[in-house]
Here is the input.
Amino acid sequence: MKNHFPNSYLEIDLGAISKNIESIKQRVPNKKYLAVVKCDAYSHGVVDVARHIRDQVDWFAVANVDEAIELRRAHITKPILVFGVPTYKTAAAYQTHNLTATVSQLTHFSILMDGTDYHLNFDTGMGRLGFSLDQVKEVRQQAVINQRLTCSGIYSHYATADDPGSDKVLEQADLFSELVKHFGEIPIKHISNTGASTNYVLDNYDMIRIGLGMMGYNPGKTRHKWLKPALTWNSRIAQVRPIKKGDTVSYGATWASPEDGYLATIPVGYGDGIPRSLSNKLEVSIKGKKYPQVGNVTMDYIMVYLGEDKLSTDEEVTILGGDALNASDWADLGSTNVHEILTNLKGRFERSHINY
Ligand SMILES: *Cc1c(COP(=O)(O)O)cnc(C)c1O
Here is the structure.
């Protein structure tokens, strides 16, 4: 749906995304860099982001063929790896749009059409997609037999790299280093995501896959000052009303005003991506001052306690990023990850890109 009269504004700082990429390159130098832009580039707008960063990265990756076609239609010519599984329905699209498939089970060798480029995907402990390690021999055989396809890479994915100090990361790293010995001739070997690249000192092989880091966040609890969130979400006060001591606010009446004062109603709610589970935990920023969000988050609105400040309707309110809490803070408060906070931002805002 096109928003002709949007209630809120998502501002994406493309320059910040470029800087984050350069900061990551400085820390993990001399690799190929794959930009993970699935799910509309974590809600940052895949076409604008991809066009802006295309000269900074070597590869793009997306979750499915539709997302990859969107990039091709936007004239992105860099290689695009599709993480998802190829099917009979999508096989032709890989060929037509020159996409790199992920081959993660034996049937994929026969599904893909002549000339299709692919990466092998092995499961070293993520437990999601990929060949198991005891299939090495059959996979090698199929790769050799299927000379009608081109294998340009082999990869795996860490399950626990979002936080530092995980033994499982080291186990997976060992398994991958054993695995790739059987595939020496494959040019691009890759396993590291943002967390593995920023929280660990590991062999990053030929390429790192960066999603969240580009957007300016480290996954997990560790924050890195050198990553700067690119996203700011603003709205405007819809109404300001006096509130009396003891008056309750919103569904369930979970909050009562401690004093006589003012209450602002902001036209964004869980329908726009503010998790309802964060009710009574958030803060917004208005004119550089923090105010608590009070009562349950509703579908279309949140309420903010202004105390004695009688602010005016239409005053700008920063909900996320900028002077307010950022997506990492929300993730911590909500016991979820930053990825989920970002991908839940959808629909009822106008998104603009700045700092080209
Ligand atoms: C999403 C994804 C990534 C990117 O992860 P970040 O934590 O955002 O860097 C990398 N590799 C695979 C296979 C993924 O699915």
Observations:
- The chain has two domains: 31-215, 231-354.
- Residues 36, 38, 83, 157, 193-195, 209-213, 219 surround pyridoxal-5'-phosphate (CB under 6 Å).
- The chain is about 25% helix and 25% strand.
- The mean pLDDT is 97.
